[in-house]
Amino acid sequence: MKIVIDGFGGDYSPDEIIKGAVLSIQKHKDLEIILTGDEKVLTDKFSELNLSMERIKLHNAPLVISNDETPTIAIKKEGTSLGEAFNILKQQDDVQALISCGSTGAILAGGFLKIGRIKGVSRPALAPFLPTRKGTNVLLIDCGANSECKPINLAHFAIMGSIYYKEINGVDSPRVGLLSNGVEEHKGSELTKETYKILKTLPINFIGNIEARDIVSGDVDVVVTDGFTGNIALKSIEGAVKLAMNEIKTAIKSSAVSMFGALFLKKAFKKVKSRMDYKKYGGSPFLGTKKLIIKSHGNSKRETICYAVDQAIECSKLGINSKFADAFANLDISGDL
């Protein structure tokens, strides 16, 4: 399998991205990686870090897209590490996935403009996994790709989310919920009310509306929403987790008794920290594009890059995109795109 990685996207590029690529090569014996970026800098880094370039090919792209640039313009510039990664993904049939920690907007623009949608999919969507209170995970779709949506878009998100969750987690009939401000069918905006009507007719296990407090309850497997609402929900959850962890640390350090007691709970704290660590989830796949695109967090380090590669390999082996294509080829719902 061959994957292209943007070598200069993210806060710790290229060092951690190089290390993540090497870890992945060591883990997967049939994997090849194309690393895009300034070839001289990358070559020097491999030498400096004393790392092997076995099955890693460099593709020269000296420019880097910043988060301040207009995504639709930046992704069209020649010679950027992300732009060249998309060109490789599009032009080389044997390259099956792209991974980047760079500008979310530019990654989404590249997905729309350079790769395109699977036939029948109205809008691709970002779909990260989050941990739940029951020890499972929940898929949030969309979490930032589409700020303004129509009911048909959310219906398509529900179908893709259900298929993706089923294939990745081996759950025959994932529970799909629609994010709203109340569980009753009549609650919500015009968007959610109209979407609710469509979701009831789809071949998915639609369980109705759910409220934001229940996203990580473990009582639902796929949460469907528009990208604006989903992004706010995601960042609110991340902020709440950080607050809780910081409060625990502050309480432990508040007295010698608390610190002594914490020694007996060390394993429990480590378990909680591990469960809440987003790095172990690799990244957010951009579901619905013709080839697999994974957006990793901007401050991803080597382990997260490796998890994202694992994610790409698993999606490829499961044939996620072909399953999307089959589902949408047989889909019979209409709506304003």
How would you characterize this protein structure?
- With 337 residues, the protein is of the alpha/beta class.
- It folds into 2 domains: 1-121 and 288-337, Isopropylmalate Dehydrogenase, CATH 3.40.718.10; 125-280, Isopropylmalate Dehydrogenase (3-Layer(aba) Sandwich), CATH 3.40.718.10.
- The chain is built from 12 helices and 12 strands.
- It is globular, with a radius of gyration of 21 Å.
- The model has no long low-confidence stretch (mean pLDDT 89).
Which fold name is given in CATH as the topology of the largest domain?
Isopropylmalate Dehydrogenase
Any idea of the CATH class of the largest domain?
Alpha Beta
Number of helices: 12
Rg (CA only)? 21 Å
The overall average pLDDT, rounded, is 89
**Largest sheet geometry:** 7 strands, mixed
- Residue stretches low in confidence (pLDDT < 50, at least 5 long) are none
